[in-house]
Fold this protein.
Amino acid sequence: MLDLALCFHHAVVGDDNAVTDSITRLRDLTRGGDHAYYVDIAHYTTNRTVEASSPAPWLDVTKPSDPNGAHWPPGTGATR
C-alpha cells in the first residue's frame, strides 16, 4: 500500500521517472496476483494508460447494475 501512495506522491511532484520506477516495483510486488489491482490504481491516479494484460480481477462494469446485487459474480456473496 505504501508503494501505491508513493506512486501518487511522485505524480503530484511531477517526477515521471520516479512514477515509472514505483509502478514497476509495485508490479513486481504484486506479480503473484495478490493486490494486482494496485498497479491499475497507480496507473489511474498518475494519469497513465492501464496495460491491456492487467491480471486484476475487476468486475464487468459494462453491464447495467441490478439493484438486487445480481451484477456481482456468482458465489461471492457480495450484495449492496
